[in-house]
Amino acid sequence: MAQLEVLEGTWEELAVHAEILKGKKLRLIVLPKEEVSGVPLQQQLHERAAWLLAATDSLQREPGKQSDDPYKISFGDIVAEKHKRRGLKL
Question: Rounded to an integer, what distance in angstroms lies between the CA atom of residue 75 and that of residue 88?
Fold first, then answer.
């Protein structure tokens, strides 16, 4: 597999590499400005993550129907044990 090359900068900074990139397949992703409505992007991400985590804390777990398949039961026990070791409440 070919190694990916990542270039990041303003359009003007990237345009300097036009000759090198000529004929190559590219994917252009336009990044958001660092600040939206005066709030730094990093702060926006932290606020959104905090909101998502708070929302997940309020969810009520609803167990699915029990299976008669012994393999599915065993797999469920393994997954539950793994999560308990990581400190998650089931």
Answer: 17
Please, are residues 67 and 73 in contact by the beta-carbon 8 Å criterion? yes
The residues that bridge with 39 in the sheet, in sequence order, are 36
Residue type for 41, please?
A: L
Closest CA to 76 of 88, 64, 85: 64
pLDDT tens per residue across span 4-63: 888 888 889 999 999 999 999 998 888 777 655 677 778 888 888 999 988 888 887 777
Yes or no: say if 34 and 40 are a contact pair by the CB < 8 Å rule. Answer: yes
Residues 6+ apart with CB under 8 A from 64: none
Question: Three-state SS for 23?
Answer: coil
The reported pTM is 0.34
